[in-house]
């Protein structure tokens, strides 16, 4: 491991520590139980709150989770001075959503391959689109995002005959 990659991992671990402190304070204020797990995955700090019933922190379709992630990123950015790409999961919501989206991307790629036509998916959040793009790439096809937020969606590009 180079000094640069070691430095980057240390910086991401620091982001996780800052986020954990921030989230522990929020849990205390809200009088909620939960344990905080931290990890580094690729180029992101990953923080998860697990434990008791935390559904109120997820909200409908993850809206509260998204807002808490944004607030946590802001808290990290305020302390480090660097933009945070930290990913927050609560009660396994994102992990479960990732599995569903990976299957959606794989299925859409198979349909595009079979039909030879572009497949347009429903609008998704940036996180959801990233997971779908990754699944489509893993299936050997390309994809692109079209539209404007909040109605931005993924289009699977079929392979051209002879490629």
Structural write-up:
With 163 residues, this protein is α+β, with helices and mostly antiparallel strands. It folds into two domains: 3-91, K homology (KH) domain (GMP Synthetase, Chain A, domain 3, 2-Layer Sandwich); 96-157, Ribosomal Protein S8, Chain: A, domain 1 (2-Layer Sandwich), CATH 3.30.1370. Helices cover 53% and strands 18% of the residues. The chain is built from five helices and six strands. The chain has helices at 3-30, 55-58, 63-80, 93-115, 126-138, and strands at 35-41, 44-50, 87-90, 119-120, 142-146, 153-157. It has a three-stranded mixed β-sheet with strand order 1-2-3, sandwiched between helices. Strand 1 and strand 2 form a beta hairpin. The termini are far apart.
